[in-house]
UniProtKB/TrEMBL annotation:
Positions of the Radical SAM core domain: 55-300
Coiled coil: none
Native species: Parabacteroides hominis
Keyword line: 4Fe-4S, Iron, Iron-sulfur, Metal-binding, S-adenosyl-L-methionine
Name of this protein: Radical SAM peptide maturase
Cofactor: [4Fe-4S] cluster
Upper classification of the organism: Bacteria, Pseudomonadati, Bacteroidota, Bacteroidia, Bacteroidales
Gene3D superfamilies: Aldolase class I
Protein's UniProt keywords contain Iron: yes
Source taxon at top rank: Bacteria
InterPro entries, sorted: Aldolase_TIM, MoaA_NifB_PqqE_Fe-S-bd_CS, rSAM, rSAM_sf, SAM_GG-Bacter, Sulphatase_maturase_rSAM
Length: 455
């Protein structure tokens, strides 16, 4: 965005420097050299060494322990609404495959590529419903804890529907799991969470979670949280009120996934969809005034994003504090570097960079005792995807602050289509909206900044 004047309804005007991430009140037609924009170079190549370094300093190892599930939720990401996943055949992950991947990683953890000191790696057990393959979970943990001289430690997490919680909660507590329970609110709110016969699961799940809460209250307070999916049978206020009242927790609330829909799923999802921010705006004033819910407000949430992306006063980590200000080389999109955060092994032996994307983005395979993970091919795969979107990135205001994962973009005519693209006209409108909001709520900037923590 080059020296565009941003005019507000109150007659104030601003200039923005994308180079310095700073706004300046615009007066008397003056445009300082401060606002001369720099040229950005996009980096689209990853070396094998860089990818190996990422794996050696991995944050999360995710294992799909089974694609079987004891529920058949109507909005499930592996159900009829979606078409970007492998056919679900009630398979169980094999420990031999998991062991082979761990052995490959442990060699890297012992190597000079591991530059972390006593790093903790989170091992996530994924499904289907992961508690349906408890044998694999126990074998994996036992093997991880038997490793010698790997210079890392391990912690464990799991998202579960809670149907089998009464059988296995003692082990989960023993291993200090972080647990995320899927629950959409009360029995009516959770009406899409049904079993294979179409019967609601609430009558089984709710007592199980209550049992854990009463049996292990300290563990429950420290290690348990809730995730709810928003749809036409609940609301943000319904979910927050129920979970807070029954369990003393503030849940995460996610919208229905709009990526990878089947043709049938497009119409059904449109019927079921409920916007998180619209739902908050429709909530009662009493609910919205509560401090723990305040940042659910759509305007203040988006203002938080605006401050993060465009004011230069936000740092994701301590490392960012030492970045050179004249660095003009950026990686396009907000996609994580290959294996920088996660590696995900599916039950079918596919190696993916994350569990949130379609299973068509295969970076490697692990089958029949053979691990095929070619770092050069991984780098080339990322490069090819970047080349499909980079033309838009070069003219987008968000080029330095993009949060869009390219693996979640749809492809059209050989190009990846980005719904968040922000050209000149859209960016002026966007800036004007939140500068006006900042002027109308002068106390909010300080409040927003006080909630930002450096990891």
């Amino acid at each position: 965005m080059k020296n565009e004047v941003i005019k507000l309804d109150n007659k104030h005007s601003y200039l923005y420097s994308n180079s310095h991430k700073m706004f300046m009140l615009y007066k008397n037609g003056r445009r300082d050299d401060f606002f001369v924009e720099d040229w950005i170079t996009f980096k689209t190549d990853y070396s094998s060494e860089a990818i190996k370094m990422n794996l050696a300093n991995l944050r999360q190892l995710l294992i799909e322990v089974t694609d079987a599930c004891n529920l058949q939720c109507k909005y499930c990401g592996y159900g009829d609404l979606y078409a970007n996943y492998d056919k679900r055949e009630a398979k169980l992950q094999q420990f031999a495959n998991v062991k082979l991947l761990i052995d490959h990683l442990s060699d890297l953890w012992r190597s000079e590529y591991n530059t972390s000191y006593n790093k903790n790696i989170t091992v996530g057990f994924y499904g289907g419903e992961p508690l349906m393959n408890m044998r694999l979970i126990k074998e994996t943990i036992a093997y991880l804890e038997s490793l010698q001289d790997v210079n890392v430690s391990f912690s464990y997490n799991m998202t579960t529907n809670g149907v089998l919680l009464d059988k296995y909660m003692d082990f989960l507590v023993e291993k200090n799991f972080k647990l995320l329970f899927s629950l959409d609110g009360n029995e009516y709110n959770s009406g899409y969470r049904v079993d294979k016969q179409g019967k609601g699961s609430f009558s089984k799940v709710f007592p199980n979670i209550k049992l854990m809460q009463s049996t292990y209250p300290d563990f429950f307070d420290k290690n348990v949280n809730f995730n709810a999916v928003l749809h036409d049978r609940n609301s943000v206020e319904d979910v927050f009120s129920f979970i807070k009242q029954e369990f003393g927790k503030t849940p995460r609330v996610a919208e229905l996934n709009t990526n990878g829909l089947s043709e049938k799923g497009k119409e059904e999802l449109k019927r079921m969809f409920n916007s998180r921010y619209d739902s908050f705006d429709k909530a009662s004033d009493v609910f919205k005034s509560q401090e723990e819910n305040r940042m659910e407000d759509s305007a203040s949430t988006f203002f938080h994003t605006f401050v993060r992306d465009f004011t230069g006063n936000y740092y994701n980590s301590y490392i960012d504090l030492f970045d050179s200000e004249d660095n003009t080389t950026y990686i396009p999109t907000g996609t994580c570097r290959p294996f920088e955060r996660k590696i995900f092994l599916t039950v079918n032996g596919k190696i993916l960079p994350c569990e949130k994307m379609g299973q068509n983005h295969v970076l490697g395979t692990l089958k029949n005792g053979i691990l095929d993970l070619d770092y050069e091919k991984v780098g080339a795969y990322y490069h090819d995807l970047y080349e499909k979107v980079i033309k838009n990135c070069k003219t987008c205001l968000l080029q330095k602050a993009c949060g869009q994962c390219m693996f979640l973009l749809e492809e059209k005519d050989g190009k990846l289509v980005c719904p968040g693209y922000m050209g000149k006209n859209k960016s002026v409108e966007y800036f004007a909206r939140y500068l006006s909001y900042a002027e109308e709520h002068p106390d909010l900037y300080e409040s927003v900044m006080s909630t930002i923590a450096i990891d």
